[in-house]
Design a protein that fits this description.
Elements: H1 14-31, E1 33-37, H2 38-55, H3 60-69, H4 73-87, E2 95-102, E3 109-115, H5 119-206
Antiparallel strand pairs: 1-3, 2-3
Helix pairs in contact: 1-2
Length: about 210
């Protein structure tokens, strides 16, 4: 029985579990909201709130302690300059966990963990993402419309091509007919001398 046993193992070794907590805390302080499993969110909540409470002292020892767990210098700077002045007045409870239900596939219970008093920042990010998606959709529609215009141009050009082909075919027919007439004229010219020779022979025989 594991009565009064604190913490969750999360199916990982001690070193892997520590690295997971560090990465989750870093991403939470950086993005102000992350989506993960409910067990990981609950473990991250206590870990991050302890770091924020330590950062409220805002001295060299506190900075060194926080940098043991968060390796991103920009996130540490943001924690001491922006997050602590905004949230530090609270007596704990710096984060919020919201359940989302079960995940498709393994049916793991999902949750969102976020920093309190940062709804405006999160909403602005969501609006920016929506605007980017809308702009991408509009650009794709314009590209498709341009492709349709090009196809219409190609369809319009095809009748002219057909007329050109017809004219070429007529020319070739004429060219084919012309040699035949020349041959007929040559045959007629050849038949005339034969007739003259035959008439001359008849005259000689009569004489």
């Amino acid at each position: 029985m594991r009565h009064r046993v604190k913490g969750r193992k999360l199916g990982r070794t001690a070193s892997h579990r520590a690295a997971l907590k560090n990465s989750l805390a870093t991403s939470l302080l950086k993005h102000k909201r992350i989506k993960t499993t409910l067990a990981k969110a609950k473990e991250t909540r206590g870990f991050v709130e302890a770091l924020i409470t330590k950062a409220r002292k805002n001295d060299l020892n506190a900075r060194r302690h926080v940098m043991r767990f968060i390796n991103d210098k920009e996130v540490v700077k943001e924690l001491f300059s922006d997050i602590v002045p905004k949230i530090g007045d609270r007596p704990g409870g710096y984060t919020r966990v919201v359940k989302l239900g079960n995940r498709m596939g393994d049916a793991a219970s999902m949750a969102i963990i976020e920093l309190v008093d940062y709804n405006e920042v999160i909403n602005k990010k969501a609006e920016d993402q929506k605007e980017e998606k809308v702009a991408k959709k509009e650009s794709k529609k314009k590209e498709k419309a341009g492709d349709g215009v090009e196809e219409a141009k190609v369809v319009e050009e095809t009748p002219a091509k057909k007329e050109k082909k017809e004219t070429k075919a007529k020319k070739t027919d004429k060219e084919k007919k012309e040699p035949k007439t020349k041959k007929e004229t040559k045959a007629k010219k050849e038949t005339k001398p034969k007739k003259e020779k035959a008439e001359k022979k008849d005259k000689k025989e009569k004489k």
